[in-house]
Amino acid sequence: MTEVPVLHLLVSTQPGGGPQHVLTLTTWLRDRGWRPIVAGPRDGALFERFCASGIETVPLATAQLSPATFLRAVRLVRERGIRLVHSHGKGAGVYARLLARTQGIHAVHTFHGIHFERYGALGRAAYLTLERRLARWTDVVINVSRAQEAEGLALGLFSRRQSRVVPNGVDVASLRAAALSRAEARAVLGADAGAPLIGCAARFDEVKRLDLLLEAAAVAGSPAPWVALIGRGDEEPRLRALAARLGLGRRVIFAGETPAAARLFPAFDLYCAPSRKEGMPLAVLEAMALGVPVLASDIPAHREALGEASTGLVPLTSADFAKAVASMLADPTARAALAAEQLTRARSEFDARDMLNAVERIYRQVLDVM
Asked: What is the pTM of this model?
């Protein structure tokens, strides 16, 4: 196959599931003979990671809508001979589908979660109307879970003919090779070497419900667990204030933005994901792949990740999370059994090679190349 340029538009290069997924995907595509080009805001550490990986990376303010940004994107398409644009995130999705419409190229869009509930009534209506319009200019919509596909179809965001379900995947061997030891990871985080430690890596956003994790830690029993929150976002001031009110003191660690955060997961006795909504959380799959037992809110995406009958699923209340955390921390045998079950599931159901091959097949079908 002749090298085909594919433009990936991101709405952010901050560490997180979507950008990390794109880094894995573009690196693999490059090694398969494609020419991936990434464009997005220079707002996070992953921008430099793309550059260091040998991926052509172009700063582009896709998080905001402006004619100047669109004209820059048009020039990029024309100068690089782009035939396919693949977008990730709301703003990037607008630019990508406008490029497809005006420049006569193909468009693939990945929903890494469908989040619009916090908009006002007019905002929700405008979002849904816009996505339905953009779908007309989209060849394929990739959904990262069956639950997300069902939601998108019910909302009319795309047709069944357009949709492909491609769950996020993880490279178990690579993750385990890169991971720090328990002692090393705790030293990096600044956690007490012997205390129970629960943690999470996530964007600090209300939808992640990190407040439940802090509340659970405050009442989870003796010895009192430490908490490590890896990431950043608008919710950080509120979370810090809550930690202070709960008297967590030095037992809560705000670790900041951390590229390749999964290498720190061996520090945790439990990985906790109390989100009220997800697409298919990459960090949860990474924890499973590293043999760190996961407790996750009982929502559709987590049921797909952990399995419908998993003992790691927890009702979405602070009381239930506190009870589950205390129970698991007190029972090493149960933690080991849950970790082994989830590691097997990560290997069998969420292999990165399946994800990558599926995306490449979509590109070939859209471009009609073999």
From this structure: 0.92
